[in-house]
């Protein structure tokens, strides 16, 4: 992908360490949106770090606006799948080696996580690539259909969508139930809507925001609530399954 633009933001405090970040890589279809923060999810971020299972290490170099990052997966490297990256046509070395046995035949899918950035992707649909690929690699779109697998599809119509609304007293265990129910029904691909879920995604280097937030906590909660209100508006237009976890 190419980082087209770092979107101007005015609502973040000056203490925010990385207001604009793009993280790219590969994940299993069963992984969450938090690229590089759980097993079988492998990311390389603009801060110059790679991560998997929320373990961050220095890799490559930083990247940002106008840079082009190529995500490379070598499935012909023997007993391991080698994942590497290019920045503006320059190879940065192997970032991850994933044992084939651990994947157990499950495919890896391209994955991107963005924070206040606009990104353009090229899976092979462009007449010319942003930068030439290394020898032996090909774009996903150019692979035969027999070598490609479709990712999980959502409900075909709004009539098939499902929404669960949590009702109960504060601290009664609603969020715990919602998380467990979503995990127990992976085929439903529930999207949990709630301030707790939003705060859980506002991690810094894989750590919860609560552990390293120096600003006013009530302001952060207020911002999370504003995010939730916006997400609910967006959710009404999407064909997905939801759990509304908010009193």
From TrEMBL:
One of its GO terms (biological process) is alternative mRNA splicing, via spliceosome. It comes from the Eukaryota. Residues 1-128 form the B30.2/SPRY domain. One of its GO terms (cellular component) is nucleus. It is found in: Nucleus. SUPFAM superfamilies: Concanavalin A-like lectins/glucanases, P-loop containing nucleoside triphosphate hydrolases. Gene3D superfamilies: 2.60.120.920, P-loop containing nucleotide triphosphate hydrolases (3.40.50.300). GO terms for molecular function: RNA binding. InterPro entries: B30.2/SPRY, B30.2/SPRY_sf, ConA-like_dom_sf, P-loop_NTPase, SPRY_dom, SPRY_hnRNP_U. PROSITE patterns: B302_SPRY. Keywords: Nucleus. This is HNRL1 protein.
């Amino acid at each position: 992908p190419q980082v087209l633009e770092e979107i101007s933001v005015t609502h973040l405090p000056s203490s925010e360490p990385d207001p604009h970040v793009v993280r790219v890589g590969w994940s299993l279809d069963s992984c969450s949106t938090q690229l590089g923060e759980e097993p079988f999810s492998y990311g390389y971020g603009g801060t110059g770090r790679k991560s998997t299972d929320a373990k961050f290490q220095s890799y490559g170099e930083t990247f940002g606006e106008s840079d082009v990052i190529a995500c490379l997966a070598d499935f012909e490297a023997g007993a391991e799948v080698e994942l590497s990256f290019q920045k503006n046509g320059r190879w940065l070395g192997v970032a991850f080696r994933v044992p084939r046995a651990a994947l157990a035949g499950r495919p890896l899918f391209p994955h991107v996580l963005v924070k206040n950035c606009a990104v353009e992707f090229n899976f092979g649909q462009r007449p010319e690539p942003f930068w030439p690929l290394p020898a032996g690699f090909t774009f996903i779109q150019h692979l035969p259909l027999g070598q490609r697998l479709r990712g999980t599809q959502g409900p075909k119509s709004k009539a098939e969508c499902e929404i669960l609304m949590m009702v109960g007293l504060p601290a009664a265990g609603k969020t715990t139930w919602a998380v467990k129910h979503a995990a127990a029904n992976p085929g439903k691909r529930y999207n949990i809507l709630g301030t707790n879920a939003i705060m859980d995604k506002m991690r810094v280097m894989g750590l919860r925001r609560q552990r390293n937030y120096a600003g006013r906590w009530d302001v952060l909660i207020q911002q999370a609530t504003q995010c939730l209100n916006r997400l609910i508006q967006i959710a009404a237009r999407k064909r997905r399954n939801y759990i509304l976890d908010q009193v």
